Amino acid sequence: MFYGQCLLIERDSFFLDRIQNEKSEIPFLTVRSPREGITVLSRPQYRIKAIFVSTSFGIMESKKLLSDVRAINEEIPVIYLCHHSHLAIPLDNDAAKNQVFQIENPERKSDLIHKLKELFPNQFNWQGIEASPEEKGQELQLKEEDFIGVKTEDFLLTSKSFFNVFLKMPSGKFVKILHAGDPLDSGLLEKYEEKNVTELWIKEEEHRRYTNLTEKTAAQLVKSNSGKQVTAICHLGDNVVRELTKFGIDDNAMAFADKFVGHSVAVIKRLRNVESRMDPLWEELLNSEHSTAVVVLSGLLANELGFESSKAIKLVGVAALLHDIALFKADPHFPTENEQDLSEEQKKIFKSHAKDGAEMLRKEGIFEEVVIQAVAQHHDRRKSLPSRQINLVSEIIGACDTFYHKVVKGQDEMAKRFFLSDDLKEFSPSVEKAFLKILSGSKTKKQA
Ligand SMILES: [Fe+2]
Ligand SMILES: [Fe+2]
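That is the input. Now the predicted structure with fe (ii) ion docked in place:
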């Protein structure tokens, strides 16, 4: 798992030809001159994590590039690619400490990746989980904030558990039920489900690996067009939401977010022409985290509204995933968005969460303006703010957000009818029409 991409500054056509068809688990952005390289690096949205620069530009030019890079980023690894020994850059003893390296006579892209694996071992190595020291079967006083819950019914089955797994007792204490490496079968999970154990708990440092496993499983199921693909993407979404809640917007969480949104788009596009497309979704959305459900619904709605390219639907998905990020940050267990149920303090947080969330995203420097705006405006309504320009992505998220609360989670028929007769009317007519079209594809009794 490597988040972001590598910048390759190269003009050696032989080398470029040789590597151009080589598959790679990491995206490379190639430019032909140091000047273009600096332009790319200065734009955070490219998420450049390492720079490979050919010494074929000449030793002076390569050294100048390094100082230009350091003026922008003091830490990013710079790896010289030296195709001819007379163009090798003499590196001093502190080079490695200063994140400067050299590869002599690189043959293939895999030589570059080999170097990255050395530089970022944690981002490639998912092995090596060991049984943690706690004994099984004993009630332990452990801190809940060190754990992340995973749904029992979706817990990924592997012949051996990759994780140390705990139960949370009603007393708040934890009991370890599996050491990493213990056999894991469906019978064991069913036993806990029967006992109404809805969540199993994994230590936060292992959860990222769990999310990684979830992503790999979802990718396989999406590729195979299996009937379980909706379940798989929702499970992945929930884990991504929990990572974002726990760790905030960091590179790893965003890498998973990217994958989740990407897989959702693939599934959404496939569902488009299925008449009963909402049927497999209802149950999943009902049991999913709020943000996961809003991502899937927003993708469907965007697609219905004519967003065709995967890139456009992904943008909607990212905005949907992060629309309430400020609520999670303020309180990972923010109870509800129903204002009547909130304390005074929570009301304050709720009131400013759209603006605060947009501010958080802006500070990250990696999000497109449309995403930031959508988060800022997701509670604004065209009807009540006729003078304000509310972007379509905000409307999509706003409509799906309301739909989730009123229809997916709402238990009474009145709320559902009100959604159709009043709530939807607050949006642009095209949004209303597209939403009704999606709902007309549903045959379930939950149809509004
Ligand atoms: Fe919100
Ligand atoms: Fe929301």
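Residues 443-448 have pLDDT under 50 and may be disordered.
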